[in-house]
Amino acid sequence: MKNYQHIQQHALSGYFERVASEDRFYSSHISLLMALFYYSDGDASEMSFQVSRPKLMRFSRIKSLATYHKNIKDLASFGYIEYTPSWHPQMGSQVRLIVGTANR
């Protein structure tokens, strides 16, 4: 049997619990947030990082550009991330996870 106490003591467990209970989110929001976490520096989760839309869409299994753009905008407007898009083809967008102060 797995030890779920260890999971509950993880530094981000409260953040993920808040995300999981968010009534405004669809599964695509959560999968995009998990993709963002995957591409962030896990040891410094609140540091900003660059990531490309194709990588995020592939990891989160989002197929539609409209869904991706709506979800990334929702995550930013709900206070879960800071997002600065890049329109340069080789530069990724700048993202920062807002772990400690996500709005409800």
Report the helical percentage: 40-55%
Q: What is the 3D shape? A: globular
What is the element string, with H for helices and E for strands?
A: HHHEHHEE
Looking across the biggest beta sheet, what order are the strands in?
1-3-2
Taking all Cα atoms into account, the compactness measure Rg is: 14 Å
| Amino- and carboxy-terminal Cα gap | 34 Å
Number of DSSP strand runs = 3
The major sheet is characterized as: 3 strands, antiparallel
Q: Indicate the structural class.
A: alpha+beta
What is the residue-averaged pLDDT?
83
Strand content: 5-15%
Stretches with pLDDT under 50, minimum 5 residues: none
Number of helices: 5
Helix and strand layout, with pairings?
Elements: H1 4-8, H2 13-20, H3 27-39, E1 49-51, H4 53-60, H5 65-77, E2 81-84, E3 93-97
Antiparallel strand pairs: 1-3, 2-3
Helix pairs in contact: 3-4, 3-5
Structure, explained:
The protein is an alpha+beta fold and 104 residues long. The protein is 45% helix and 12% strand. The protein has five helices and three strands. It has a three-stranded antiparallel beta sheet. Strand 2 and strand 3 form a beta hairpin. Helix 3 packs across helix 4. The protein is globular. The model has no long low-confidence stretch (mean pLDDT 83).
Short description:
With 104 residues, the protein is an alpha+beta fold. It has five helices and three strands; from the N terminus they run H-H-H-E-H-H-E-E.
Fill in the keyword field for this structure.
globular, alpha+beta
